[in-house]
Task: inverse folding
């Protein structure tokens, strides 16, 4: 059974005649007649009755058509998949991200991206910065979003946002009335820090190099955890203002000097093939981050 025979059979069933089917298939009527005869021989079915030059489907022919149409639904789906791959790459994205971005700007990015590409499946994986880099480097994920560069970079990195860290305080704190918090102001304060080995931890500690009188009681890898602990009155901390804004009603947010940069990076695998979906998602990501950071105070 050959595809040309099946295609001719469907064309005859659709058009009602071999002449019309031949025109549809850009071939001759005798060729269509030959293909139908070959199909009947192969299947052992009588697909049509012929009377006075007219062609009438038999019950066997109608039953066979139902099975053929069922098979062609799958072929049509393959055609659609091929079209999507041509236009948008593989038709799905797997994104790796650190929790701070997963809980702040990424849902907004996904909202806009889904509106543009409602048929694209997106999976989001959340992990540490090094794990995100490993996922992207191995091409398990198409792209990654991190808050600092991992020490062992196996990817290309592009900075996509740079905001100044802010100081978060519990409501009623003695420093809440200050316009700007400095290292000297935090002398004697219980400080909730980023985890050792975190690139942000090094930047924060460097700001206190000349006057470090903090009391280091807690450390955690996540800015959202710092904000929650601060809101519970367990200390103070310095975090990304995008994260702090999520907890704005539960704590006091103040600028911090000297400036501590919180840079977000887009990670992509080296020597990756072109992917239209990745490029469009990245454009949306940069657009949303620009809007979100532009809305921050100061």
Result:
């Amino acid at each position: 059974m050959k595809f040309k025979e099946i295609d001719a059979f469907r064309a005859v069933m659709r058009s009602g005649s071999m002449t019309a089917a031949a025109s549809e298939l850009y071939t001759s009527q005798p060729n269509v007649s030959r293909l139908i005869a070959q199909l009947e021989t192969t299947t052992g079915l009588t697909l049509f009755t012929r009377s006075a030059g007219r062609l009438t489907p038999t019950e066997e022919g109608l039953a066979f058509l139902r099975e053929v149409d069922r098979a062609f639904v799958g072929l049509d789906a393959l055609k659609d998949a091929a079209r999507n791959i041509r236009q948008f790459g593989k038709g799905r994205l797997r994104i790796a991200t650190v929790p701070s971005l997963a809980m702040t700007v990424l849902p907004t990015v996904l909202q806009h991206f889904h509106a543009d590409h409602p048929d694209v499946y997106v999976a989001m994986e959340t992990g540490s910065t090094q794990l995100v880099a490993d996922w992207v480097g191995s091409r398990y994920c198409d792209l990654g979003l991190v808050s600092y560069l991992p020490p062992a970079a196996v990817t290309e990195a592009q900075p996509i946002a740079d905001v100044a860290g802010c100081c978060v305080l519990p409501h009623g704190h003695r420093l809440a009335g200050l316009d700007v918090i400095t290292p000297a102001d935090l002398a004697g304060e219980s400080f909730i820090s980023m985890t050792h080995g975190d690139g942000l931890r090094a930047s924060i500690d460097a700001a206190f190099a000349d006057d470090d009188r903090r009391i280091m009681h807690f450390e955690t890898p996540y800015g959202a955890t710092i904000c929650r602990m601060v809101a519970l009155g367990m200390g103070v901390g310095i975090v990304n203002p995008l994260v702090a804004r999520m907890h704005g009603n539960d704590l006091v947010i103040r600028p911090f000097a000297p400036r501590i940069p919180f840079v977000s990076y887009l990670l992509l695998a080296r020597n990756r093939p072109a992917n239209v979906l990745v490029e469009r998602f990245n454009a949306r990501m940069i657009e949303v981050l620009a809007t979100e950071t532009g809305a921050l105070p100061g």
